[in-house]
Amino acid sequence: MSTKSRTAILFVCLGNICRSPLAEGVFRAIVAERGLEHAFEIDSAALGDWHVGGPPDARSVAVAHRVGIDISLQRARQIALPDFSRFDLIFGMDRSNISRLCELAPKEARQRIHLFLDYALGKEEDVPDPYYGTEENFSEVYEKIREASEALISRLAPESPPRSGQASSIT
Ligand code: 4NP
């Protein structure tokens, strides 16, 4: 099948071990709930190279596991120049991610770069970096990502409601 009609979405954060792998896993699960796997290409990447090749942070793996999503096999990678033409939508998790993405991106790709919560929810807010935080911070990150991902799929595919009940808040 041609992949040309797919919308390619890249979630980006600083390390690609806490927020963006969770966003990748949650959005992928929502897409699967709606039977829309054919319509999206979904990936995540880091701005930094510290964790390249490594698994997601155990706290992100755990928070995803609690709602039945397995992100343990995802591996961190650093964003590269071809990503700016390969992906239609590039979502930074916070405003410092956006600044860095705009520095790295070729001029013509800057319109593809958006703050995730702003694009999905109309809120000019960050998904805050939980790396030095608590398990509760990871739960809060999950809730923000879940809400934004539900809104994103409604925006991108308004005609396709979930096939079964909506998953799930962990609080
Ligand atoms: P992330 O969190 O950007 O959500 O993956 C971080 C992960 C690692 C580091 C910072 C933030 N770090 O400094 O290594």
Overall description:
By secondary structure, this protein is an alpha/beta fold. It has a single domain (7-156), classed as Response regulator (Rossmann fold), CATH 3.40.50. The protein contains six helices and four strands. The protein has helices spanning 19-33, 58-65, 83-86, 95-104, 116-121, 135-156; strands spanning 7-13, 40-46, 89-92, 113-115. A four-stranded parallel β-sheet has the order 2-1-3-4. Helix 1 crosses helix 6 and helix 2 (58-65) crosses helix 6 (135-156). The N and C termini lie far apart (40 Å). 39% of the residues are buried. 4-nitrophenyl phosphate (4NP) is lined by residues 13-19, 50, 129, 131. 4-nitrophenyl phosphate binds next to loops.
Give the termini separation. Answer: 40 Å
Strand numbers in spatial order across the main sheet = 2-1-3-4
> What portion of residues is helical?
25-40%
Query: What is the chains' assembly state?
Result: single chain
* Mean model confidence by pLDDT: 94
Low-confidence stretches: none
Count of helical regions: 6
CATH topology: Rossmann fold
Structural class: alpha/beta
What form results from the Cα inertia axes? globular
Largest sheet: 4 strands, parallel
- Rg (C-alpha, Å): 15 Å
- Ligand species: 4-nitrophenyl phosphate
* CATH architectural type: 3-Layer(aba) Sandwich
CATH class: Alpha Beta
Instruction: State which percent range the strand residues make up.
Output: 5-15%
Within CATH, the superfamily carries the name: Response regulator
Topology:
Layout lengths: L6 E7 L5 H15 L6 E7 L11 H8 L17 H4 L2 E4 L2 H10 L8 E3 H6 L13 H22 L15
Parallel strand pairs: 1-2, 1-3, 3-4
The protein binds 4-nitrophenyl phosphate.
